[in-house]
Amino acid sequence: MSDAMTGANGDVFRDALTKLERASAHRPVDPEVLLRLEHPKAMLHVSVPVRMDDGSLRVFEGYRVRHDDTRGPAKGGIRYHPQVNLSEVKALALWMTLKCAVAGIPFGGAKGGISVDPKTLSRLELERLSRGFIGHLGNFIGPETDIPAPDVYTNAMVMGWMMDEYSRLNGRRTPAVITGKPIHLGGSLGRDDATGRGAYYVIKELEQRHHWDPFATRVAVQGFGNAGQHVAALLHQDGYKVVAVSDSQGGIYREEGFDIPSLIHTKNESRKLRAVYCEGTVCEMVPAETVTNEELLELDVDVLIPAALEGQITEKNADRVQASTVVEVANGPTTSDGDAVLADRGITVVPDILANAGGVTVSYFEWVQNRGGLSWTLEEVQNRLSEIMSRETLAILELGEELGSDLRTAAYALALGRLGAAVEAQGTKGYFNDDGD
After folding, report:
1. For the chain, which has fewer Cβ within 10 Å, the N-terminal or C-terminal residue?
2. What is the pTM (predicted TM-score) of this model?
3. CATH for the stretch 194-355
């Protein structure tokens, strides 16, 4: 794991807890609430053997962490990435607990992952790995227990394989065990762009509150995968000038802005990010500067959207961020030390547990539809998502003003309040030591 991804103190889980502890000063809760959140409920570490296409055997390390289920079944994605490790998965599961509380949906938090570079596997090897991982999870997951979803470098087809394998092992079709599935296997309309669309709804609330002019607002997006593409496309559609985007190989910058649909078309067709403008199927190169992912974070823009991996903004580079607003579409892109620097500089940071909550919210919709035998229209899904994202954004903006705090502290405080109420409903020391006087 890189230094950036491990956080300021070498442990991304501990770094996540640091942010939580800071927020608890603004929203006092029973000490037992924080104690529970410091200790994931259950963790599973498995070794998944896979027979490769050339006949050789490889063994992949996999993890699943069920952080908390006080408010409902645990919910969280499965990622395939070479840097996946237990500390990262624990932190992501903690963030999922907070994210579900912020969104007000009846889930707890979980996360999973396999340490693998999926780009090096054939499609058949990827399917064997996915089914093998589910076979190892056994009874650890389930529609009333722990519900996985797609994450970094996993997609609807991978989720379909996983749901099918779980159903095969349990002798009955169980679509509600996995969300983010293909539509024809029980997936929900609107799930494909839910994370990016949720972030878009958050930005639209900021636009209204701060009276932004979209046509005069410059945006940079680090990470041009599913979430980054969708939020960029929606903003571009509204007139925002997206002047820089990047993927894992690096980025491109153009003062005049990019035609985002053209970039998306080329990226998805060729797997390469190129500065192009397309008319129909004909794409022509346009002039642009090459920038690194690190340089993109420091560009002179109004809105910076980190939509890649954790730990991108740290104490080492936070003082060079020029954007006035950072919208965290990735999970944990800002370390606690980097966060403090941004706060001192007056930069508004929309935290990940709000900005990217659209994905888990529509996953919740999919779960509800699967369990109820329902099928909602795209308009129904998007309207429900808009309502939740707008409501919780306004709640956090107002709480931040009430507390005189940054938005991350306000979001964590909101989550702590909801989690605290659930924990206290089961009884804490104060209840059990009550002598009845």
Report:
1. C
2. 0.91
3. 3.40.50.720
